[in-house]
C-alpha cells in the first residue's frame, strides 16, 4: 500500500473516530455527520488514488470518479455512492447553512457513521 493510500485511510479512520466522539460524547449530531462524510471521502480517495493514480481535486470529482469505480469493483455496495452524495449535502448544510435548514438528527448521524465505517472497512479490505 502506498504512503498516499495509507494516509487517506488513516485520515478516514481519524474522522470516523471524531464522528463517534461528536455524537456519543458531545451529542453534536451535525458535526458528527460532517466528520462521517469526511471519513467516507478520505476512504474513497484511497480507492481513487489506487485505481487512477491521482487524488481527486474536488468533492464532486471524487464522488463522480468513485461512482465509476464502484460499478466495476466487487465488494463495494453501490449505496456507498448515494451515501457520499447525501452526506456531502449534510456537510454543506453544516458548513454553510442552506438546504432544507433541518439539523441532522442523532439517528441520521448514527446511520452516517455506520455507513462510513462500512465504507472504510470495505475499501481497506479491497486494498489490502
Q: So what's the overall shape?
A: globular
Number of helices: 5
Count of beta strands: 0
Radius of gyration: 14 Å
Q: Give the CATH topology.
A: Four Helix Bundle (Hemerythrin (Met), subunit A)
DSSP helix fraction: over 70%
Q: Can you tell me the CATH architecture?
A: Up-down Bundle
Description:
By secondary structure, the protein is mainly α. It is 77% helix and 0% strand. Helix 1 (3-24) runs antiparallel to helix 5 and helix 2 (29-52) runs parallel beside helix 5. The N and C termini lie close together (7 Å). The radius of gyration is 14 Å and the shape is globular. The chain has helices at residues 3-24, 29-52, 59-71, 79-96, 106-127. The protein has a single domain, classed as Nucleotidyltransferases  domain 2 (Four Helix Bundle (Hemerythrin (Met), subunit A)). The longest helix is centred in the N-terminal third of the chain and has 24 residues, at 29-52. It has five helices and no strands.
Task: Explain the layout of strands and helices.
Blueprint: H1 3-24, H2 29-52, H3 59-71, H4 79-96, H5 106-127
Amino acid at each position: 500500500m502506498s504512503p498516499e493510500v495509507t494516509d487517506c485511510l488513516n485520515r478516514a479512520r481519524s474522522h470516523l473516530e471524531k464522528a463517534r466522539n461528536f455524537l456519543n460524547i458531545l451529542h453534536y449530531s451535525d458535526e458528527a455527520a460532517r466528520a462521517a462524510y469526511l471519513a467516507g471521502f478520505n476512504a474513497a480517495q484511497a480507492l481513487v488514488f489506487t485505481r487512477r493514480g491521482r487524488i481527486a481535486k474536488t468533492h464532486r470529482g471524487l464522488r463522480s470518479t468513485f461512482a465509476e469505480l464502484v460499478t466495476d469493483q466487487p465488494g463495494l455496495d453501490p449505496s456507498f455512492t448515494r451515501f457520499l452524495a447525501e452526506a456531502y449535502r449534510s456537510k454543506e448544510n453544516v458548513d454553510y447553512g442552506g438546504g432544507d435548514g433541518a439539523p441532522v438528527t442523532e439517528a441520521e448521524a448514527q446511520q452516517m457513521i455506520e455507513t462510513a465505517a462500512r465504507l472504510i472497512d470495505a475499501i481497506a479490505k479491497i486494498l489490502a
